[in-house]
Amino acid sequence: MNVMYEKDMSFEYKLQKPQFVLDKIEDFQFTRKYILNYKLVDYLIENIEDNYEYEIYYGLLIDQLANESESSFSFIDGYIYCHEINHNTKEIFIKSLCKKWQHMWTYIQLKSNLVTEKMDMFLRDIIKYADIDDIVNMNVNQILTRYISSLPYFLRLVTDEEYNEKIIMILDRLKVVFIEMDKVNHENEILNHIYINDMYEINEDMIYVIMNHYSSDSIYNVRRANYTAIKNSKCEELIKYIDKNINEYIEKVFLKLNANDSEAEKIIIELLNNEDIEVENKNKIISETKFIINNINKVNIHLLWARLIENCKIKISWSNIISYFEHFNKQIDEIVINFLNEENNYLILSKQSLSEISEFDNSVVDSISQKIILCKEITIDAFKELIKSIKEKYTEFEELKDSSEDKINILINQGILILSPENYIMLKNNFKNEHIKLLVNNINEYVEKYEKYELDAEDIKKLLKSEIYMNYKVFIIEHIEDVEIISDNYLVDMIMECIMEIDKIKLKDVILENIIKSDIHLKTKVMLLNKNIDSLDKNITFKLLNVIGGKYSDITNYSSKPLLNNNHENKVLAKNLKNKNYISSWSEEKFGIRINTYQKEK
Q1: Burial class of residue 503 in the structure, from the number of CB atoms within 10 Å of its CB (0-12 exposed, 13-18 middle, 19+ buried)
Q2: CA distance readout (Å), 375 to 24, 133, 332, 344, 511
Q3: What whole-number distance in Å separates Cα of residue 401 and Cα of residue 100?
Q4: CB-based burial label for 466 (10 Å; 0-12, 13-18, 19+)
Q5: Pairwise CA distance, residues 477 & 459, whole Å
Q6: For a disulfide at 18, which of 43, 110, 112, 160, Cβ 3.0-4.6 Å?
Q7: What are residue 181's phi and psi, to 5 degrees?
Q8: C-alpha dihedral over 377, 378, 379, 383, to 10 degrees?
Q9: What pLDDT shows up at residue 419?
Q10: Facing residues of 588 across strands?
Q11: For position 374, what pLDDT does the model report?
Q12: What's the pLDDT tens digit per position in 580-598?
């Protein structure tokens, strides 16, 4: 056989003569994997009492099976649940294994990858067959206690009543406190022990199970009026247990009942105003119970106002917020800020106009409006909505210099920060682009009073990049007067891009001259002259032709016949010069456009 030759064999291999095998092998071989055979173990267990040597062999075999190897556990699993063994053999094997292997349950739960159903089969057999001391010893780091405590169907795990006393002793030794338990529909000795000895956690589900079993008539209201149902249940052990641990009950059950939402506002206010209830529990009632108080002034203890607002337990209204604001030094503190930053809150408040609130002085409303605008901690999403409640318009608001660009942008878009020299200067001095945003959003007002708003090259570039209509861009370009601005080549390019989209423009003469002097393409220079020529007199026109230079300068000389390249811009120039009677005539020739100047001044 393979054992004799030290070769692994199937666990199920049917040994015909296990005694013969045992007679031929040595002690040390019982520490090897190849010794693992179901029939061999059967034979050892069945004959262990009559053979001291077999007892040694069996001990070595159990040592090997407790080594936490995958093959060893596979053998254990197969031997107990796949191999056909009698009750006595199974009991001896499991008892031996539990006695030897302290970390057996730790391995089963954390390392074996068994499905829950199979783990529960192991637990059932451990409870039935292992010694109680060994089970307690197996409870490393409370792992078994925690597993059983969270096993809702534990009372169905071992249904044989003969084990009830042992199970009760195990529960006591492991100090099990059940977290959840399935409904029990019949008298149960173990449940009675659990109930009488408070071996269950105070939580909604366990209370429901206890009440359902011992006072089913009172169960109907337990979800929506929990403590009242308990008091009316006549479950004296339950009532005493909860009364002894009332704060635990309040924190773990009463305050966490999601369905406990039918308490009247008046009752909640009475609880909060009740001086006999600890402040901590009042805070927990506020934090964890579902209710809404319409008027915060009904709560007499002002120190609870912050907690009410913090937990959104007040009606979402500016009246409640202003009441708090007025009472606490007219400051927007962290409590109010957090409340305002909640999406549901700011969306509702955004639909309520501050100007329509009548129960407060206007000065109080104005004060909270300005503090909301200046509050840095209000998120941008909240700010965007809350601003809709403010109808005030500000022509001067110097304090905004420390605000964020996003918030300034919103104030401009909402028309709260309007165009004025003061606002323009404040924005220009403190922000990168917001003064431009102010101009863009109020472009008509700017055009009417443009002389009050100084633009530099960067400002003009940003305006030309903006989405204002072309006519406004042309207006801005036509009113550039500072020659230094035109020294910016990028701005010149932008100006030219705009000009190319229109037919005519009227630049300041000095600006036009300096652009033509700049490093732009010759055709572009001619095009620029063409688009401005309607507003230019002869002297300026000729001056600009001289600035362009080359053959264009010859146009300014009498009795000259310069030949220009034949292209669109030169043709338009020739037409314009003729229309204004600045030249005698022009014609297209084979090699270009001929310009005929006057013989003398005309």
Answers
A1: exposed
A2: 90, 66, 8, 19, 45
A3: 77
A4: middle
A5: 12
A6: 43
A7: -155, 140
A8: -150
A9: 95
A10: 593
A11: 94
A12: 999 999 999 989 999 999 9
- Is the pLDDT reported for residue 209 higher than 80? yes
Structure tokens at 74: 């596979």
- 53-78 tens-digit pLDDT: 888 888 898 999 999 999 999 999 99
Among residues 365, 376, 378, 366, the alpha carbon closest in space to that of 399 is found at 376
Phi then psi for residue 594, to 5 deg, are: -90, 125
- Give the chain's mean pLDDT: 90
Residue 597: which of 578, 573, 579, 571 has the closest Cα? Answer: 578
Cα 402 vs. chain centroid, distance in angstroms?
Answer: 28
82 Cβ partners below 8 Å, 6+ apart? none
**Residue 52: Cβ within 10 Å count:** 9
Ramachandran area for residue 520 (φ above 0: left; ψ -120 to 50: alpha; else beta): beta
d(CA 541, CA 513): 10
The larger pLDDT score, comparing residue 3 to residue 519, is at: 519
Mean pLDDT for 269-298 is 84
On the CB side of 26, CA atoms within 13 Å amount to: 5
Q: How far apart are CA 69 and CA 221, in angstroms?
A: 53
Q: What is the pLDDT of residues 547-560, one digit of tens each?
A: 999 999 999 999 89
> Closest by alpha carbon to 97, among 127, 132, 124, 59?
59
What tens digit of pLDDT does each residue of 189-205 get? 999 999 999 999 999 99
Measure the CA dihedral 29/35/41/45, to 10°. Answer: 0
Whole-angstrom Cα distance, residue 516 to residue 41? 107
Q: Alpha-carbon distance 172 to 197, whole Å? A: 10
Count the helices and strands in the chain (H runs, E runs).
35, 3
pLDDT of 2 higher than 60: no
The four Cα atoms 294, 300, 303, 309 give a dihedral, to 10 degrees, of 0
Backbone angles phi, psi at 268, to 5 degrees: -60, -45
CA–CA dist 475, 498 (Å, integer): 11
Among left, alpha and beta (phi > 0; psi -120 to 50; other), residue 73 is alpha
Q: Tokens 């917020």 map to which residue?
A: 321
Q: Give CA–CA dist 141/172, Å, rounded.
A: 17
Confidence of residue 274 (pLDDT cuts 50, 70, 90): low
